[in-house]
Specification:
Layout lengths: L1 E4 L5 E4 L7 E9 L4 H11 L3 E9 L6 E9 L7 H15 L2 E6 L4 E7 L4 H11 L5 E8 L5 H6 L4 E3 L7 H14 L4 E4 L8 H6 L4 E5 L11 H8 L3 E8 L9 E8 L6 H24 L3 E4 L2 E4 L1
Parallel strand pairs: 7-8, 7-10, 8-9, 10-11
Antiparallel strand pairs: 1-2, 3-5, 3-6, 4-5, 11-12, 12-13, 14-15
Helix pairs in contact: 1-2, 3-8, 7-8
Length: about 300
């Protein structure tokens, strides 16, 4: 895993690892002594080498503990399946939940879009450039406008018209497609439809949306017009997981841009689109890279 300096002085992870025998482990449990020791010992006993480890505790006295580890394993000395079985037993014994993934495995991702294509184009470009490591078996839209762009990437485009009259039927058609392709992540790239609770329940913590506002400010339609009327000095965008509560799911990433009285509503929309595409792509990358854990209505982003 290579890193480079961000402009804010932090480190930016670049998802360019070529290690075929590298894995990622995410752990959540009640904070108590020995958790790290037990996990480290298991990896050591199975000839694995920890290359990166991050931990976070909400409260050392009875709070929650979260950890992300990247490690290399030796398939000849200890097969991955053996390590998986060992973690299953360890999790039962010490009462923690975990997710273990091979870094080389590509998740199946679907993109939903309406008419505006700025977020869609950003995701497709990063995907083709290898910055988003995933397979994209399909793009679904309630409008036909972006068919040509999507199909130019060799990705099937499905136009499913959705109105109040056929909303349930349209969602069932989309769900059927998603299930057929074993989709693990759905990205709403400015998909201007409200998903029903039935749809959301099919894909818990697997749907990422971009909201064209710095939530919780200016929710709903026309946020840039509302921001203009308030004379805001900052505009932003929010990427979050989708829940039944509209625009109130766990926030993954937010970004902002400073503006002033000279900016028109059109200026704000143009600037906002740039923020939206960056914030959404960043959130999607973190999810694909197994850097996110959800606790209550918050995310822990490693």
């Amino acid at each position: 895993m290579r890193t480079q300096k961000c402009t804010n002085g932090g480190l930016l992870k670049l998802n360019v690892t070529n290690h075929e025998q590298r894995a990622r482990l995410l752990v959540s449990c009640q904070d108590r002594p020995g958790v790290v020791a037990h996990i480290s010992t298991l990896l050591f006993e199975h000839h694995a080498n920890i290359v990166q480890s991050d931990q976070y505790s909400t409260d050392p006295e009875g709070g929650m503990f979260f950890m992300r580890i990247e490690f290399d394993w030796n398939e000849e000395k200890s097969p991955f399946q053996t390590i998986e079985s060992a973690f299953t037993e360890l999790a039962k014994t010490h009462e923690f939940t975990y997710k273990l993934e091979k870094a080389s495995r590509k998740k199946q991702m679907a993109i939903f879009v309406s008419k505006e294509n700025h977020c869609l184009s950003e995701l497709l470009w990063k995907w083709r450039a290898g910055e988003l490591v995933a397979d994209i078996p399909l793009v679904i839209s309630n409008h036909p406008d972006n068919r040509e762009e999507v199909e130019s990437y060799g990705i099937p485009f499905h136009h499913i018209a959705s109105t109040k009259a056929n909303r349930k039927e349209a969602e069932q058609k989309a769900i059927k497609l998603l299930k057929e392709h074993n989709i693990e992540l759905i990205v709403l790239a400015r998909y201007m439809q409200i998903l029903s609770p039935d749809f959301v329940s099919e894909f818990p913590q697997q749907i990422i949306n971009i909201h064209h506002s710095f939530l919780p400010a200016f929710i709903g339609a026309n946020p840039y017009a509302k921001a203009f009327e308030r004379g805001v000095k900052l505009i932003g965008a929010t990427a979050h997981y989708v829940t039944d509560d509209l625009d109130e799911g766990p926030i993954i990433e937010q970004d902002v841009l400073r503006v002033n009285h000279r900016h028109t509503v059109t200026d704000l929309r143009v600037a906002g689109r740039n923020i939206e595409r960056i914030a959404l792509a960043r959130a999607v990358g973190w999810h694909l890279n197994d850097q996110l854990l959800v606790h209550t209505n918050k995310t822990i982003a490693f």
